Structure formats: structure tokens, C-alpha cells
């Protein structure tokens, strides 16, 4: 696989805003790239992208998925002061986004820059600034526009229900690391696109008919729920969680044996482990 291509496309995808529910541009980018590589991307009614590949052999469809939607936020209401109260899209701690630059996308097409802040920001003003609980009701977006109230904000075209995208802050270091928000799971999606590039450059195809499935609602739990018709196997390429007693690190392959609701298919996870051993890949069985 061409690592240079992988990183180049990953950076493009990371810099394309796609909070869950507003991932159209990310799918458009993948569709354009797939077309340049000689493959067609079809869209599902939910806005996901499907790229179908012929197999070297006949057989039932195999599906490999990754999601292009990311964590984000939505405007819940406009505060009297002209700041925005937001509600999260996806599950994350507000500690992790405090101070983050962001963009508010109005439904009329305007884009307004801002910063996510605690209502008690300054330790010089608020005695509880350090201990003030970082939760939805205590957070707001300060817009990079001079506004003094709700009417000024409405004049910008901003309304409740508008999407808020967090800045990814993409950096490719001289040591070869890619640092960014939203690597979950744009890194996985970029791997699937790099697989397409590999197929084109080597003029090869997968063994069986395969669909690469780029989903758009994974951060809220139902991205891949409509499985492409005729699928025999479904493999999701996504992030691997680290910490506590999981015994893994960034350089390992994580094979997820279960999630919060129960185990994954034992036969398939066993085959993945056998493949990792055959290829001498460091790996971990992960469960939540």
C-alpha cells in the first residue's frame, strides 16, 4: 500500500468538516477520489457511500466499512449575551473540547468562526474557574463576530439546529506521525481509499465481490445498520481503544471481540487473529 498516497488523502479528508449528520462533503470527496481511481461510488438513502468491487472469484458479497462522520456539536439555543449554547453530537467529554476553535454552519450557507469555552473561563474573575463543571449547560461558543445579543446572532443566519464542526488541527510531523482530531475514523476511511489506489496500481481485485462502505452516522450508533444487500461477512475498520487493562498501544492491531452490547462473531474474530499471527502482526483482543 502506498503510504504517501494514504497520508495525502487522509489530510484532505481530515480537513473536510463532517460532524455526524453533516458528512456530505466528506462523501463527495471520497466519490471524486474514487472516480479518479476508476471506481464508482453510489450513495445510500442515508448518505453513506458504497464502492463495489468485482472479485477474482464468484461468491457472496463481503463488506468492509469505515465511517467518515466525526464528533461535533449542534446549536441548541442562542444565549442572551450572544454566545451559543451547544449540544454534543457523539459521545465525548467537554473537557476535551474546551478552548477548541470551531465553525458554525448555518442552513443558509454562512460559516461563522468561534471558540468553545466554559462560562467561567478566567481564574482572575471566577473563584471556581478551575472546578466549574464542564458539562453541556456550562459550555458555550463565543463567536468571532461583534455581537451583543440574540438579534445580532440571528442576523448572521445562525439558528438552533445548525451544525458546529471542531477544528481538526492536522499536523504531519517530521517523524512520520499524523496528529489530528477525527482520526476516528477518517484514518480507517483513508485506508480503504488507499486500498482502491493499490488495486488500480497493481491491476488486482479482492478474491470475492466486495463493497467498501463509507458510513455517515457511526458517532451516534447507527451508521452501518443498513447492511448492503447480499452481504455474507461484514468487517468494520475503526479505532482501537487503549488504556486501563486493555494491554494495547498505537502500533498494535486491535481485534474487537465484543462491544458494550455483546460479542462479535467468534469464527470471524478467530480468523482475524490467525491472519495476524500468520503475518506476524502485534495485536490485541479488545473488549469493552
What would you note in describing this structure?
The model has no long low-confidence stretch (mean pLDDT 94). The protein is 22% helix and 27% strand. The strands form five sheets. It has a six-stranded antiparallel sheet, with no helix packed on it. By secondary structure, it is α+β, with helices and mostly antiparallel strands.
Which features characterize this protein?
288 residues, alpha+beta, 6-stranded antiparallel sheet, 5-stranded mixed sheet
Topology, element by element:
Blueprint: H1 3-14, H2 24-36, E1 41-43, E2 49-53, E3 61-67, E4 72-78, E5 84-89, E6 101-105, E7 111-118, E8 139-143, H3 150-155, E9 163-166, E10 171-172, E11 178-179, H4 183-202, E12 210-215, E13 231-236, E14 253-256, E15 258-259, E16 262-263, H5 266-278, E17 283-286
Parallel strand pairs: 3-12, 3-13, 14-17
Antiparallel strand pairs: 1-2, 2-12, 4-5, 4-9, 6-7, 6-9, 7-8, 10-11, 15-16
Summarize this, please?
The protein has helices at residues 3-14, 24-36, 150-155, 183-202, 266-278; strands spanning 41-43, 49-53, 61-67, 72-78, 84-89, 101-105, 111-118, 139-143, 163-166, 171-172, 178-179, 210-215, 231-236, 253-256, 258-259, 262-263, 283-286. It is an alpha+beta fold and 288 residues long.
Low-confidence stretches: none
SSE order, one letter for each helix or strand: HHEEEEEEEEHEEEHEEEEEHE
Q: What is the approximate shape? A: globular
Distinct helical segment count = 5
Strand content: 25-35%
Q: Describe the sheet with the most strands.
A: 6 strands, antiparallel
Radius of gyration in whole Å, from Cα?
A: 21 Å
From the helix content, strand content and strand pairing, which structural class follows? alpha+beta
Question: Helical percent range?
Answer: 10-25%
How is the largest sheet built, in terms of strand order?
5-4-9-6-7-8
Q: Give the assembly state of these chains.
A: single chain
| Average pLDDT over all residues | 94
The number of E-state strands comes to 17
Amino acid at each position: 500500500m502506498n503510504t504517501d498516497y494514504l497520508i495525502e488523502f487522509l489530510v484532505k479528508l481530515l480537513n473536510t468538516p463532517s460532524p455526524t449528520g453533516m458528512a456530505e462533503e466528506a462523501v463527495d470527496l471520497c466519490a471524486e477520489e474514487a472516480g479518479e481511481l476508476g471506481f464508482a461510488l453510489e450513495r445510500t438513502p442515508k448518505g453513506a457511500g458504497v464502492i463495489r468491487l468485482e472479485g477474482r472469484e464468484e461468491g457472496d458479497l463481503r463488506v468492509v466499512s469505515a465511517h467518515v462522520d466525526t464528533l461535533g456539536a449542534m446549536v441548541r439555543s442562542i444565549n442572551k449575551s450572544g454566545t451559543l449554547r451547544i449540544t454534543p453530537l457523539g459521545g465525548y467529554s467537554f473537557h476535551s473540547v474546551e478552548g477548541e476553535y470551531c465553525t458554525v454552519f448555518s442552513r443558509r450557507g454562512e460559516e461563522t468562526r468561534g471558540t468553545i469555552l466554559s462560562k467561567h473561563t478566567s481564574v482572575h474573575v471566577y473563584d471556581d474557574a478551575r472546578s466549574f463543571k464542564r458539562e453541556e449547560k456550562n459550555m458555550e461558543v463565543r463567536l468571532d463576530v461583534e455581537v451583543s445579543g440574540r438579534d445580532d446572532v440571528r442576523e448572521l443566519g445562525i439558528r438552533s439546529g445548525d451544525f458546529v464542526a471542531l477544528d481538526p488541527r492536522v499536523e504531519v510531523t517530521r517523524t512520520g506521525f499524523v496528529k489530528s482530531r477525527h482520526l476516528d475514523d477518517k484514518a480507517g476511511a483513508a485506508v480503504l481509499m488507499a486500498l482502491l489506489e493499490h488495486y488500480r496500481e497493481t491491476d488486482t481485485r479482492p478474491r470475492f465481490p466486495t463493497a467498501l462502505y463509507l458510513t455517515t452516522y457511526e458517532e451516534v450508533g447507527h451508521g452501518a445498520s443498513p447492511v448492503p444487500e447480499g452481504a455474507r461477512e461484514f468487517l468494520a475498520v475503526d479505532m482501537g481503544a487503549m488504556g486501563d487493562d486493555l494491554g494495547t498501544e498505537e502500533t498494535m492491531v486491535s481485534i474487537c471481540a465484543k462491544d458494550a452490547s455483546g460479542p462479535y462473531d467468534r469464527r470471524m474474530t478467530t480468523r482475524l487473529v490467525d491472519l495476524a499471527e500468520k503475518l506476524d502482526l502485534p495485536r490485541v483482543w479488545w473488549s469493552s
